[in-house]
Amino acid sequence: MMTELLLGATLIAVTGVVQACSVRFALPQALLVASVGIACGAASLLLNMLLPHSALTFIAPLVAWPLPAQTCLTLFLPTLLFQAALSVNVREMLADAAPILLLAVFAVFVATGAIGLAASAVSGQPVIDGLLLGAIIATTDPSAVLAVFRSVGAPARLVRLVEGESLLNDATAIAVAGVLLAALEGNHATGGVGTALRVFAFSFAGGTLFGAVAGRLLAWALVHMGGEGKAELTLTIALPYPLYIVGDHYLHVSGVVAVVAAGLVVSGLGRTRLSPRNWDHLQLFWEQAAAIAGTVVFLIATIRVPALMRTAHPFDLVTLCAIVAAALAARVAVLFGVFPILARLRLSEPVSPAFKFVIAWGGLRGAVTIVLALGIAGNDDLSEPTRRFVAVLATGFVLLSLVMNGPTLKPLIRRLGLDRLSAQDRAIQRQVVRIATTGVEERVQVASKVFEIAPEIADKVVEQYRRSVALDGASNLDDLLSDQDRLAIGLLALARKERDLIPDYGYGVVKVSNLDRMTRNASDMIEAVRRDGRLGYRRRAAQILALSGMYRVSRWLHLHLRFDRLFATALADRFELLMCRRAVLEQLTRYNDERLNDLLGDRLVSMLDKLLHARIDAIEAALNEMRSQYYRYTWRLERRMLLLVALREGCASVAAMYGDQTISTEIYNSLNREFARAWEVAIARPRFS
C-alpha cells in the first residue's frame, strides 16, 4: 500500500514536470509522457533480465497493473471526458454544429469500417476484430493538437471544429466499441448489422438523454448553493462517475455518452449559475484533474509498451501501415467528399481546403485510445489473439501518430499560412499596439522617477519597447479597412462584451432562465453580425424585444379567463429582462466610449453609440408601456430588484472588509447570516394584482 501511495505521488509530480517541460520546449505533452513511460518500461525489462530478483519494485505496479480492465476504464474515462466537455464553449460551437457532427459521428463510422476492413484484409484476423480496432483508434485527442494551434495562433474556427470533433467522436467511437465488444463477448443475440445499429442507436440516444437530464439537474442544484464555490465544485465532482456506472451497468445505455452530454449541458448553463471567479476555479480544477488522469494512463500504457512489443510480430508493422493509410484515407474522403455537400445545402459555412488538410493530418490519438486499448488487453472474455491484435496495433497507432503527425503539424499549419493573421486582424493588432504604447510610455516614465532612474535610460527603454512590438512603420487602421469592416469589428466587440456582462447580474438578482435567454440572444447577435453586419445586428435587436408566445398566451388567459398566475410570471420575466438589458446596454455605451474610441475613431464610435441608444430607447418604450398598464406591480418589481442589488453589494462590501482583516471571523459570519435572512425575504416576487 505504501509503495502504491508513493508511486501515485510520483506520478502527480511527473505530471507537473511534464507540463512545465511541454511549455518550455514547445513539445506535445503526450509525446513527452510517452517517452518517459517507454524509458521506464525498457529500464524495468533490462533490470529484470540482469537482476531478476531485484527488478524495479517501485514501478512494478505500473508494469503489472493490478486493476481489472473495466476498473481501469471506470477510473480514467469519466474524468477525461467530463473535463473535455466542460471546457467547450457550447454556444460558439452551435454555429458549426453540422460539420462537427459529421466529423464526430459519420466520420467515425467511415473510419471504423475502413480501418477494420484494411486490418482484417492484411492481417487475416476476423472482420469484427478489425472493426473493434477501428472504433478504438477512431477517437482523437484534442489536447496535443489544440496546444499546437494555440502556439501558432490558428484561426478560431479551426480550433472549434477540432475541439468539437474530438469531444463528440470520443463518445461515438466508445459507444461503437462497446457494441462490438458486447458482440465479441456474446452478450448480444446475433442479428447482423441491423441489430448492431439498433443497439448502438439505443445506447447513444439513451446516454444522451440520461446525461442531458442529469446535467440539467446539476445546473438546477448549482443555483441553490448560495455561491459557495467549494459546494459547487463538489457537486460537479460527484456527477461523472455515477453517470458512467449507472448508465453502463443499470440502464444499459452508453455511460460515456451520458458523461459527455452532462458535461456539455453544465458547460452551456454553468456560466450563468456560477460567479465568474467560481467558474474559473471549477475549470482549473477539472483541467488539472484531467491532466493528471491523462498523464497517469499514458505512463501506465507506455511503460508496458516494451513488454507489449515483445509479443509483436514483424508483420504487425505491415498491418500498422495499412491501418494508418486507411485512417487517413477515410478522413480525407469525409472532409473533401462530404463537407462540400453541407455547404451546398447551406447547413454550414464552407470549410477551406487548408482547414481540411490540417484537420485530416491533425487527428492525433491519445489518452482515450490508450485507456480503451488497456481495457481490451486485460479483458479475459476475449481470445488471446484478439487482445494481442487490438492492444499492439492500437498502441502502435497512438505512438506513430505522436511521432509522425505531432512534430509535423506545426510546419504544416505554417506552410498553409494558417498562422498568419488576416488583413483585418493585422490592422486591429497594429492599432491596439499603438494605443497601448501611449500608456506604456507614461508608466515607464513614472517608474523611472519612482526608482530614481535617469530619464535617458527610460527613453532608451521606450525605444527598445517600440522596436520589440514592431510599432514603427505600422499602417493606419483607416488605410487598411473600410468603414463597413471597422463597423463590423465594433459591433462584434459590443455583442461579445454584452455576452460577457450578463453573468454579472446573476446570484439571484435576475432569474437564471432569464440570464440563459439573454446569453442565447447575445450569441445569436454575434452570429447575425458575422453574417449580415449592421443589418443583422439591428434585425436581431428588434427580434429580441418581440413578445414571446408564452407572454401572449398568458396575457390572453389573464384578460379573458382571469387566470393570472402564468401571466404574473411572464410579466415579471419580461420586465426583469428589459431592466437587465437596459443596464447592460448602459454599460456598453461606456465601454464603447472608453475602449473603442481609440481603436475605431470618433465617427464610427458615434455610429455605434446611436445603435446602442436606439436599443435603449426601444427598451425604455417597452418598459414605460408596462408601467402604464401595470403600475403597482412593476413598481414592486423595481423595488425588489433594487433591494436585491443593495443586499448583494452590502454582502460584497462585508466580504471585502473581512478580506482586508478589518473585521473578525465572528462578525463576518454573523453579518452573513443577517444578509442571508434578508435575502430570503427579498427574493420572493411580489403578488400580482
TrEMBL record:
<feature type="transmembrane region" description="Helical">
    <location>
        <begin position="98"/>
        <end position="119"/>
    </location>
</feature>
<keyword id="KW-0812">Transmembrane</keyword>
<feature type="transmembrane region" description="Helical">
    <location>
        <begin position="284"/>
        <end position="305"/>
    </location>
</feature>
<feature type="transmembrane region" description="Helical">
    <location>
        <begin position="63"/>
        <end position="86"/>
    </location>
</feature>
<feature type="transmembrane region" description="Helical">
    <location>
        <begin position="30"/>
        <end position="51"/>
    </location>
</feature>
<keyword id="KW-0915">Sodium</keyword>
<keyword id="KW-0739">Sodium transport</keyword>
<feature type="transmembrane region" description="Helical">
    <location>
        <begin position="354"/>
        <end position="377"/>
    </location>
</feature>
<feature type="transmembrane region" description="Helical">
    <location>
        <begin position="317"/>
        <end position="342"/>
    </location>
</feature>
<protein>
    <submittedName>
        <fullName>Na+/H+ antiporter</fullName>
    </submittedName>
</protein>
<dbReference type="GO" id="GO:0051453">
    <property type="term" value="P:regulation of intracellular pH"/>
</dbReference>
<keyword id="KW-0406">Ion transport</keyword>
<keyword id="KW-1003">Cell membrane</keyword>
<dbReference type="Pfam" id="PF00999">
    <property type="entry name" value="Na_H_Exchanger"/>
</dbReference>
<dbReference type="GO" id="GO:0005886">
    <property type="term" value="C:plasma membrane"/>
</dbReference>
<feature type="transmembrane region" description="Helical">
    <location>
        <begin position="389"/>
        <end position="406"/>
    </location>
</feature>
<keyword id="KW-0472">Membrane</keyword>
<feature type="transmembrane region" description="Helical">
    <location>
        <begin position="250"/>
        <end position="272"/>
    </location>
</feature>
<dbReference type="GO" id="GO:0015386">
    <property type="term" value="F:potassium:proton antiporter activity"/>
</dbReference>
<dbReference type="InterPro" id="IPR018422">
    <property type="entry name" value="Cation/H_exchanger_CPA1"/>
</dbReference>
<keyword id="KW-1133">Transmembrane helix</keyword>
<dbReference type="GO" id="GO:0098719">
    <property type="term" value="P:sodium ion import across plasma membrane"/>
</dbReference>
<keyword id="KW-0813">Transport</keyword>
<feature type="transmembrane region" description="Helical">
    <location>
        <begin position="167"/>
        <end position="184"/>
    </location>
</feature>
<feature type="transmembrane region" description="Helical">
    <location>
        <begin position="196"/>
        <end position="223"/>
    </location>
</feature>
<dbReference type="GO" id="GO:0015385">
    <property type="term" value="F:sodium:proton antiporter activity"/>
</dbReference>
<feature type="domain" description="Cation/H+ exchanger transmembrane">
    <location>
        <begin position="24"/>
        <end position="414"/>
    </location>
</feature>
<dbReference type="InterPro" id="IPR006153">
    <property type="entry name" value="Cation/H_exchanger_TM"/>
</dbReference>
<feature type="transmembrane region" description="Helical">
    <location>
        <begin position="131"/>
        <end position="152"/>
    </location>
</feature>
